[in-house]
Amino acid sequence: MVTRPSKRLALLQAAGRVVERQGSAQLTLEAVAAEAGLSKGGLLYHFPTKQALIEAMVALLVEEFSQDVAERRKGGAFLPAYIRATFDYHPRLSVASVLAAALSHDPPLLEPLQKGFEAWRQAALADPVPGSRSDLIRLAVDGLWFTELFALAPLAGKDRGRLQQELLALCQERTPPGK
Hints:
Layout: H1 7-22, H2 29-36, H3 40-46, H4 50-73, H5 78-87, H6 95-105, H7 111-125, H8 131-149, H9 157-172
Helix pairs in contact: 1-2, 1-6, 2-3, 4-5, 4-6, 4-7, 5-8, 5-9
């Protein structure tokens, strides 16, 4: 059985498509309603303002990724779960469209994402690897994400797979006592 996305999710996805096709300057409540095939009143029921719509887009990204990491973690170390979640990331919204919408409308709307990255950093630092290695792994994973997000010489195929395996191996290495 195929499940349809909730009306709220469908509206967020419509907003993402508007930004992808027309740019963030064209993100209006009217454009989103038209893209979703709803009246503006139907959209306003879920999102009374453009700001509320963008806030929900950012919140969905953070929530989805956090849930994915938590599911992969299941009581284990954070960093391997973070690596696997990032390498397998398939968001329901275009990350680029969400970032563009937030940055062009009101950059403080990215605060939930900033808080998410800080929480992920703190969780990574709590793993049983040296702090600097923890940051190295996390920043490498985040760098992969950004290169793919903006098509900045992203890795593909075997290179991408090798990087994932090397990062996972770094999570297993321990610093000898006294070093």
